[in-house]
Design a protein that fits this description.
The protein is an alpha/beta fold. The protein has 20 helices and 15 strands. Helix 1 crosses helix 2 and helix 2 crosses helix 4. It binds pyridoxal-5'-phosphate (PLP).
């Protein structure tokens, strides 16, 4: 018990000891046979202390833990989106453990601006005049609309009223920002005249929203950024494009379909662009607003900006990621999500073939095979695009009627490993897409724990 007192402190030991004693007392009062045997055991006291220590250990373990993402979705929102490159981890770790010039101008010795640390990098990569950073892209959209169109109409195509994962829905964001959504055109087709006819003295803003997680296909029409900018500017209004993922480089070089870059949308005439820092950019959770300086200045003066601002760790990590973009030739070696995304199928297959025999012999009551699959980029970026990959597919051998239960407990056993492994259940099987397994030992090293499961 002495070691527990030293490691965890008196308070924690007292709380857990009291709890364990109460449980034991209740069990004895209820004449529970197992509790009586425990108390009669000559090692009762040592065992009881051990039990308390285990309970303390469990109660102090972090709830937020690393996992292995074998879901096949590379940028998985529920699994923390992008992994950070080493440079970003180093940068945030230094800033975390030291005072910094977060809002302090080293030249003048006076108060500084936290956005100043990133503005230059964002402007260099996008061609924007100015930039500001907030908590995430949802916050960026909210802040832009609230600043530029409070109590006014925001014109958006009916085909772009997106919902991103349940709580971010464009109509709700407009309401929260105290702006009125004015829907333009139809779900599948919106034309230039639709916007022109909708513009009036109540209009505050024209907006285009990237249809990130779905595609409108077939008989469709939408108005390009350049035209939207012309319509807005001829009425003296700003035009804002919510790009969602926000790519800084041409993604076709990584085998993805063409996506508008932040630079191209600004060049086409958007006054402001909003995008996420942790989708196709591969950085930390944040939202970037880039574009015209006078508009960025108004946004920074909005009291909501103070509520939505980012902390020093985010700024440090995001800066390190943007530095990596300064050397575009080595992006796919240095940004983990691009490394995952650009892995060749042959390489993934070879890795799966090495894993197969070990997984087979560990899971004796399952059938294990390698199958072709398709990985997704994820996080609402490029919904239709699927990257050829390979998965280890595990099917429990169980009586009919027990198969669902066997599969559920198999998936649970993987999730309960010291380093939890998250796969995808599909068609009565557990699929482990090998694309994002950059260290095979994360699986091989834990197989004995799986084999030990009852
Ligand atoms: C993802 C997305 C958002 C929300 O971005 P977060 O960084 O997740 O807050 C907003 N708009 C679009 C178009 C998106 O794709």
């Amino acid at each position: 018990m002495q070691s527990a007192l030293e490691d965890y402190g008196v308070e924690r030991v007292k709380v857990q000891a009291r709890r364990a004693l109460e449980e034991l007392r209740d069990a004895l009062v209820a004449e529970n046979a197992e509790a009586i045997t425990r108390v009669e055991n000559e090692n009762f006291f040592a065992n009881f202390c051990q039990q308390i220590k285990a309970a303390i250990k469990q109660s102090v373990g972090a709830s937020l833990r690393p996992v292995v993402n074998l879901t096949g979705t590379i940028i998985h929102t529920n699994l923390g989106r992008s992994r950070l490159p080493k440079e970003a981890v180093d940068a945030l770790s230094i800033i975390a453990s030291h005072p910094s010039n977060l809002e302090f101008d080293l030249q003048s010795g006076r108060r500084g601006d936290r956005d100043s640390h990133l503005q230059e990098a964002v402007c260099a990569l996008t061609g924007a005049e100015a930039a500001t950073i907030v908590n995430n892209n949802a916050a960026a959209v909210l802040l832009v609309v609230n600043t530029l169109a409070r109590d006014k109409d925001v014109l958006i195509s009916r085909g772009e009223l997106v919902e991103i994962g349940g709580t971010f829905r464009i109509p709700d964001v407009m309401a929260s920002a105290h702006a009125r959504l004015r829907e333009v055109g139809t779900t599948n087709r919106t034309h230039r005249q639709d916007y022109e006819q909708a513009v009036n003295t109540n209009t505050g803003l024209l907006m285009k929203v990237h249809t990130s997680n779905y595609a409108v296909q077939g008989f469709t029409a939408s108005v390009a950024e350049q035209e939207l900018a012309e319509i807005a500017h001829s009425a003296g209004l700003p035009f804002v494009s919510d790009l969602g993922s926000g790519t800084l480089v041409d993604m076709t070089q990584f085998g993805l379909p063409p996506e508008p870059t932040v630079r191209s949308v600004l060049q086409a005439g958007a006054d402001l662009v909003t995008f996420s820092g942790d989708k196709l950019l591969g950085g930390v959770q944040s939202g970037i607003i880039a574009g015209r300086k006078d508009l960025v200045d108004r946004i920074k003066a909005n009291p909501l900006k103070r509520a939505l601002r980012v902390d020093k760790l985010t700024l440090a990590a995001l800066h390190a990621v943007l530095e990596i973009y300064g050397d575009p030739d080595r992006l796919s070696q240095r940004l983990p999500f691009l490394r995952d995304l650009s892995r060749r199928p042959e390489e993934i297959l070879a890795q799966a073939e090495v894993l197969l025999p070990a997984v087979r012999s560990a899971l004796t009551d399952c059938e294990v095979a390698i199958r072709e699959t398709h990985s997704q980029v994820g996080s609402g970026a490029l919904p239709l695009d699927l990257l050829p990959s390979y998965a280890l597919v595990i099917r429990p051998r169980a009586e009919k009627g027990q198969r669902d239960a066997a599969l559920t407990s198999l998936a649970l056993a993987f999730r309960q490993l010291p380093l939890p492994i998250i796969g995808r259940i599909h068609d009565g099987e557990l699929w482990l897409d090998i694309r994002c397994l950059d260290d095979s030992n994360a699986l091989l090293g834990q197989l004995s724990e799986l084999a030990a499961q009852p």
